[in-house]
UniProtKB/TrEMBL annotation:
Entry GO CC: mitochondrion
GO biological process, alphabetically ordered: mitochondrial translational elongation
Record-stated family: Belongs to the TRAFAC class translation factor GTPase superfamily. Classic translation factor GTPase family. EF-Tu/EF-1A subfamily.
Protein known as: Tr-type G domain-containing protein
């Protein structure tokens, strides 16, 4: 196996046992074993999830019977004991330590491995290497052995700790319970505590009293780790271990991990009777682990599972299942941004409410009523949606952030903001009306902004006859073709959102909603997320929290942000320094957000009125504000909803991109006296105020309440200099400022 395979795959104890069947005898053979590639191929999808979700990996391993079985199968010979005098437990530590060190050495992840005494293992690694060399089982010379040992010893100890490091080294160096744990390690996304009963037996024993051992500090340290991991997995190995713990030991409500974002408890089947009275939700399952996890993941903050654990953390029906990746495949669903667009009164908000109601019956969402979505006083008075409304829900496959876009022409700016956040759109069309003005305009804007996938929901199908529905479907497919969508492959679902809400006409009501969500799951591909670039977050709106700051609401455009990270709020020529005090996703506190997630970020110390829509929250010193860009522009034809008259130099209209709307001033090329509908042109655009823009950003030019005149993409960020401004009548434009990083 190539080293690259190791960097995207984590081996568990059980996986190594499986490899032993191929008579792998040495670490060198483990790394070069070609048969292992078949395992990698079978877990390709899981590896993608690993790359996406486990940027930092944290394992606590306090015991492993699986490795003992591995040794008996010949992975490392029992003759180890002749050289080292090691017990069975010692051989377990040596074997696992070698493998983990190799994985860490060649991995780009931040792997934190906690096991037994570090020095104990390292000495035995050297003895083991000497023994294998003497038997010609490991063909490396002395210098290669020294380099191997050096590479192990040089592994950054901020990334690798062992159980005794936590219990002794850390407590020796600091007995202050308020010590800042953040200085110790980078925070993990996944925390696995195997054989949790062995770990906690330490807390009730007196065997460590001769050492400066501060239990309160250790508990505080572990609590900090569990609170900052995205998922915590606890493994209770067998019945006897649990019975040995006193009755006050409570897994779900233990203060060390009671605030973990997602808690999974893995129990031996025999423990179920003992634990039923102590767990809120205990689910017994021997075979269908994935389905159980999907079900219980939505119950509450702490989801509890109970199933048989034999040669793996989780009993597997497939011989090649990777336990940790199984958890991620089920629990760490990808986040998709979707929304409803379409003409006013065609049922967008009703459909949004219906989706949440139907999914709530499957424990996949909280029901959000029509009245709650249209909650603003003006919306209630006029009976229309004005502002964007976000709701969250899940299917068996994905998590969705759903934006309900305004259909009324007066509030099309809000609709553009909503569309710019979408990975896909649900175009709602009333079967009783067919295509209407905002239907065309919303579809045109979605196409211009870059929404590549559209699903059509023909609403109010219970009020139209079959002939009418067929005519509307033909009209819709013609419209899709006009705006560049695949008219033949685009799914069209007939239904009635109101019937789904009221529990009537199941085939057109509830069943149509389930068919719609199944179509979205399978038709919309997984979007590519840029999590490696510096953090950038277009601000959609702000909410004031008295005494704490402002909550910035929007969708992360790129990068990652962790709680406590510094930020800059930039835009309109301003730069405001702050930090992320809290991060929330649909009212749930999280420790980190990533590209594609719709979140609320509490910006520390920001006064009301300082931050406005269109500004960006960004990683410090990662953005440039500019008021001069080069753009590739397309002028819409009259039949596409564009203007009738030509555009001339000096044309000033609002430019809408991401969440901002800013006046823009056109400077036509010298060889163009005017632009007509259908023209493609490259030109310079001057903005009224400096904004954060990047090459590749898409925008629209909105001329009136009902007219979009142009769409375009930024091709170059230009410096603000007098030479570049020649030919601009800049009297109506704010004086340019120099670019500053």
């Amino acid at each position: 196996m190539k080293l690259k395979s190791l960097t995207s795959t984590l081996l568990t104890s059980s996986d190594i046992v499986k490899l032993s069947l191929a008579n792998i005898q040495t670490t060198e053979q483990l790394i070069t074993h070609t048969d292992y590639e078949s395992l990698s191929r079978q877990t390709e999808q899981a590896n993608v999830l690993l790359d996406k979700y486990i940027r930092n990996l944290f394992i606590i391993e306090t015991g492993s019977k699986e490795i003992d079985e591995l040794i008996s199968n010949g992975f490392y010979s029992n003759e180890i004991s002749e050289i080292t005098g090691a017990t069975s437990t010692g051989k377990t530590q040596i074997c696992f330590q070698l493998i983990v060190n190799m994985i860490v050495k060649h991995s780009h992840y931040n792997c934190l491995y906690i096991d037994s005494n570090k020095n104990f293992c390292e000495k035995r690694i050297e003895n083991l290497l000497d023994y294998k060399i003497s038997k010609n089982e490991l063909k490396i010379d002395k210098s290669q052995k020294i380099n191997l040992l050096k590479s192990i010893n040089k592994i950054d100890c901020s990334n690798i700790f062992h159980l005794n490091d936590i219990l002794f080294s850390l407590t020796k160096s600091s007995t202050d319970e308020t010590n800042n744990h953040q200085d110790s390690i980078k925070m993990p996304n996944l925390l696995i505590i195997d054989n949790i009963t062995s770990l906690f037996s330490i807390f009730k024993s007196n065997s460590y009293t001769e050492v400066n051992f501060n239990l309160n500090y250790v508990a505080s340290y572990l609590k900090y780790l569990t609170n900052n991991a995205k998922m915590v997995i606890l493994v209770v190995s067998n019945r006897s271990n649990y019975e040995n713990l006193n009755n006050n030991f409570n897994l779900t409500n233990n203060p060390i991990w009671s605030n973990a974002p997602n808690l999974v408890v893995c129990l031996h089947k025999d423990n179920s009777n003992l634990l039923t009275s102590r767990f809120k939700n205990v689910v017994l399952d021997d075979n269908k682990f994935s389905s159980v996890l999907k079900l219980s993941y939505h119950y509450s903050n702490s989801s509890v599972l109970c199933f048989e654990s034999k040669l793996n953390f989780f009993k597997s029906t497939n011989s090649c299942t990777f336990s940790i990746l199984t958890v991620l495949n089920s629990a760490q669903k990808e986040n998709i941004n979707i929304g409803t667009i379409g003409h006013i009164d065609h049922g967008k908000t009703t459909l949004t409410a219906a989706i949440t109601k139907v999914l709530s019956e499957k424990k996949l969402a909280n029901y959000v009523s029509y009245e709650k979505i249209d909650s603003a006083p003006e919306e209630k008075r006029r009976g229309i949606t004005i502002n964007l409304m976000h709701v969250g829900y899940s299917t068996e496959k994905r998590n969705y952030a759903h934006v309900d876009c305004p259909g009324h022409a007066d509030f099309i700016k809000n609709m553009i903001t909503g569309t710019s956040q979408m990975d896909a759109a649900i175009l709602v069309i009333a079967a009783t009306d067919g295509v209407m003005p905002q239907t065309k305009e919303h579809l045109a804007l979605a196409q211009a902004i870059g929404v590549k996938h559209v699903i059509v929901y023909l609403n109010k199908a219970d009020l139209a006859d079959q002939e009418m529905i067929e005519l509307v479907e033909m009209e819709v497919r013609e419209l899709l073709a006009v705006y560049g969508y695949d008219s033949e492959k685009t799914p069209i679902i007939n239904g009635s959102a109101l019937a789904a809400l009221e529990g009537k006409n199941e085939s057109l009501g509830k069943e149509s909603i389930m068919k719609l969500m199944d179509t979205v799951d399978n038709y919309v591909p997984s979007p590519e997320r840029d999590t490696k670039s510096p953090f950038l977050f277009p601000i959609e709106k702000t909410v004031s929290v008295p005494g704490r700051g402002q909550v910035l609401v929007g969708t992360v455009a790129r990068g990652l942000l962790k709680k406590g990270d510094p930020m800059e709020i930039v835009g309109y020529g301003e730069t405001i320094k702050t930090a992320a005090s809290e991060i929330h996703v649909f009212k749930n506190s999280v420790n980190e957000c990533a590209a594609g997630e719709h979140v609320g970020i509490l910006a520390r110390g920001i006064k009301p009125g300082v931050v406005r829509r269109g500004m960006m929250a960004a990683q410090p010193n990662s953005t440039v504000q500019t008021n001069l860009i080069e753009a590739s522009l397309y002028v819409l034809k009259k039949e596409e909803g564009g203007r009738k008259k030509p555009i001339t130099s000096g044309y000033i209209q609002p430019l809408l991109t991401k969440t901002s709307s800013i006046d823009s001033y056109f400077k036509l090329p010298e060889d163009k006296s005017m632009l007509l509908g259908g023209d493609h042109v490259k030109l310079n655009i001057l903005l009224k105020s400096p904004m954060v823009l990047s090459t590749g950003d898409k925008f629209t030019i909105r001329e009136t309440l009902t007219l979009t005149s142009c769409t375009g993409v930024v091709t170059k960020i230009l410096p603000n200099s007098p030479e570049k401004l020649i030919g601009f009548n800049a009297t109506a434009i704010k004086k340019p400022i120099p670019n500053k990083k």
